[in-house]
């Protein structure tokens, strides 16, 4: 069985779950043609991502003339299919703030994807995210006739489903996947009722072998770690506020922020304004080994997100036997169990977040260790990469027929 993965910018540090999913499929004997629209900016910091980039074909490397040639080939080879794809691109473009011109670019990308799939004997495409990569897969389906599917993560797709033509993508797909029950429920809001049987849950997953020997909790005062892109939806600014609230009662608590992004200057400014330079460390992006080292150095992962899908970093923290403090958002309550594997607080509530951190600081280390072990048991049972890849491979096989 040979499939194509249709991706936007790949690989990125925050998308390591896609690399793990592809590797697990390949262990099952599935051949995967990696077709990404664009290269990641700069050299990926993780050596595994650098190796993955070397295995990936980049559509926009074709340049404008190459993509125009692909469009011409598609139009002359199957005029009826081309006109149907053109009409679909125009309709989606008129519904989108990105406009018609951008969707004509997607059509050109789809022409190249369809041609490469035909050359490589690929009969099914799978996209990650219901955004432009799924648009390209849908248009390639119309141009070339091969089936497609896609995984929806959220929250971006749930913020603008009409602008993304999400319902049309779902109804045309052989199947679609949510990464949580919550995610699938949102897909059902936009898909036709007849499409519901083709909507499935396949979790993003971890490689258990990478967490085979969890480090014991460190000694000393509470150490927190938060991992993720510096973006409004991740709630790092609220976390800085919570740390400021804790200063009076738990001045020894320390927070490490792993990641980077457009909000870094604002976060740094707020840390300085609150006088927390000694209490908060920013590391920038780290390779997987560096992320694991920061998890091992912490007692608790804290992720105060306002919007999510189902964060990989929570799975990784639980696999590393670390309790989690997070929010009642999207698929997170399906994984984090309050009082058993960590704490859940209302999103946007700095006081509740500070209270949860204070409880973690005051909890006996044995209680934190027990929470960590319960979380580890839960995530290993629910989010094993090979188990989830088997589900996806079965869906591919059924789609190909």
Automatic annotation (TrEMBL):
Pfam families xref list: Glyco_trans_1_4
SUPFAM superfamilies: UDP-Glycosyltransferase/glycogen phosphorylase (SSF53756)
The keyword Phosphoprotein is assigned to this record: no
GO molecular function: glycosyltransferase activity
Gene3D superfamilies referenced in this protein's UniProt entry, alphabetically: Glycogen Phosphorylase B (3.40.50.2000)
Keyword 4Fe-4S: no
Record keywords: Glycosyltransferase, Transferase
Protein name, UniProt field: Glycosyl transferases group 1
Species assigned in the record: Jhaorihella thermophila
